[in-house]
Design a protein that fits this description.
Blueprint: E1 6-9, H1 17-30, E2 34-37, H2 50-63, E3 66-68, E4 76-80, E5 88-92, H3 99-113, E6 118-124, H4 134-147, E7 152-158, E8 167-173, E9 183-184, E10 192-199, H5 203-219, E11 226-231, E12 236-243, E13 250-255, H6 262-278, H7 286-291, H8 293-297, E14 303-307, H9 312-324, E15 329-332, E16 339-343
Parallel strand pairs: 1-2, 5-6, 9-14, 10-11
Antiparallel strand pairs: 2-4, 3-4, 6-8, 7-8, 10-12, 12-13, 14-16, 15-16
Helix pairs in contact: 1-2, 1-3, 1-9, 2-3, 5-6
Length: 344
């Protein structure tokens, strides 16, 4: 194996797919090839699952990369990037694997190194567990990117839930010649809104979810009107609570599943809201904390933001970024506690 390859261990830290996605993005951005061993070794099903394999193939497509080990369940991958080409791309995961995770693999290389606009069509899961749902990406994640100077539009053509998948998301990216660092203060007083949606299921489920969430939010001192929606497709349900934090709204969600009561879906979303509020005045939620650290590591100028919770995803992502970039990055705070991220 070539000595010029950057050697990475996929069992490090959180041991999941984020190591892979960050490595793919930074390889395309820096031109540095890598060898990733022990891919997703920390997961019950290690190796490349469909959504991870599609992330690899998507990165290879937009960056004309050479691949070794890009196969289902592979635990060893070599990725050698080429030139990034903007354009129209369509990626179909073929399962309910998360479309958002494929998007988060390739959006920065296309925006920062592409020679023009890009349009992405992503097919798979849009509202599935252990990944950011479409509405989180559109309402929270996208707004953090805008604050740093990167603009993209997202459109949900149809939802995709586990296990059927089949959701379709379109993303429209404009070139971004440079990102700027951001400093984020405290979240301040908040109000809550949100929605309760069902797809291919009785409207009564949406009503039960909304009623339970409104009751729980009231116990937290938040009066909220949650609109009820019926979507095509499915079957599936989602309950989302949106806090009007400034300068970026913060969304928390719960998802339905076979045999799972509607009230439990609502509880899952509101429990996250409760934990966020108890963590103190920090603006950035635990999920956003690790998702914005990569673009801010590439930005001009320093960044600083307080996080509601330091997670292993966050500390792992910082460690992977340091393998590719010479940038001073500090994460203060114990895992599971509020903290501070500084990029100097």
């Amino acid at each position: 194996m070539s000595a010029s390859l950057l050697e990475l261990d996929g069992s490090f830290g959180e041991g999941g797919g984020q190591i892979l996605r960050t490595s793919l993005a930074l390889s395309l951005l820096t031109g540095r090839a890598f060898h990733l061993a022990n891919v997703r070794a920390g997961r019950p099903k290690p190796g490349l699952q469909p959504q991870h394999l599609q992330s690899v193939r998507a990165a290879a497509a937009v960056g004309h990369a050479q691949l070794r080990g890009a196969a289902l369940c592979s635990t060893d991958l070599v990725f050698e990037p080429g030139p990034i080409v903007s354009g129209k791309y369509r990626f179909d995961i073929g399962t309910a694997g998360a479309t958002g995770l494929v998007l988060q693999t390739i959006y920065l290389p296309l925006a920062l190194r592409g020679d023009g606009p890009s349009e992405l069509t992503l097919i798979g899961g849009t509202h599935v567990t252990t990944s950011p749902c479409f509405h989180f990406l559109d309402i929270t994640w996208r707004r953090y990117l805008e604050a740093s100077g990167l603009h993209l539009r997202l459109r949900l053509q149809r939802p995709g839930f586990y296990p059927r998948g089949g959701g379709l998301v379109e993303a429209f990216l404009q070139p971004c010649r440079h990102l700027r660092g951001i400093r984020l203060g405290e979240r301040g007083e908040v109000r809550a809104t949100g929605f309760s949606a069902v797809a291919g299921l009785p409207e009564s489920i949406a009503k039960r979810q909304a009623r339970r969430a409104a009751f729980r939010l009231q116990q937290l001192g938040l009066e909220a009107v949650l609109r009820e929606e019926q979507w095509e497709g499915g079957p599936g349900t989602v309950l989302a609570v949106i806090l009007n934090t400034q300068p970026v709204p913060t969304l928390f969600f719960g998802l339905g599943a076979r045999g799972k009561p509607a009230e439990r879906v609502a509880d899952e979303a509101v429990d996250q809201v409760s934990a966020y509020l108890r963590a103190g005045p920090a603006l950035v939620d635990a999920h956003s904390a690790d998702q914005i650290v990569l673009p801010l590591a590439l930005a001009e100028g320093p960044s600083e933001y307080r996080v509601a919770e330091v997670t292993r995803h966050l500390t792992t992502n910082i460690a992977v970024i340091r393998q590719f970039l010479e940038r001073e990055m500090v994460c203060e705070g114990a895992e599971g506690e509020p903290g501070l991220v500084r990029i100097i």
